Structure prediction request, 150 residues.
Amino acid sequence: MSYCKQEGKDRIIFVTKEDHETPSNAELIADDPDDPYEDQGLILPNGEINWNCPCLGGMASGPCGSQFKEAFSCFHYSQEEVKGSECIEQFRTMQECMQRYPDLYPQEEDKENPRQAESGGAPAADGSALLSENDSSSVASPDSASAAVG
Prediction:
């Protein structure tokens, strides 16, 4: 016997095997050809940003959605010679928000070097990676490079 249960905003429907064996009688609603957001891409014909565009990958929603919208809007509507140069503060605010949610917004270096992220190792202060003893013999030091030149 199938039944429904309401939990907050969610409605949970339990169905039986028999329910699944009968063909569905659900009616599909045809797409609205006048929908201004359907198949428009990132920028709508009127020049506005389509925040529903799948190309944004959900960045416009979530805990940092408003910061993303502010930064992206600033860049999109920028009239500066160097486009977006006046938007640094908005992008900084967005980045700070994203850093508070590393599971939702992983940093590029976390994606590129998962071994380093797992071990808890961090790059050296000068941005170079730390090498193991085996790796160090194949890398020229600044001293050996200057000796070869001079």
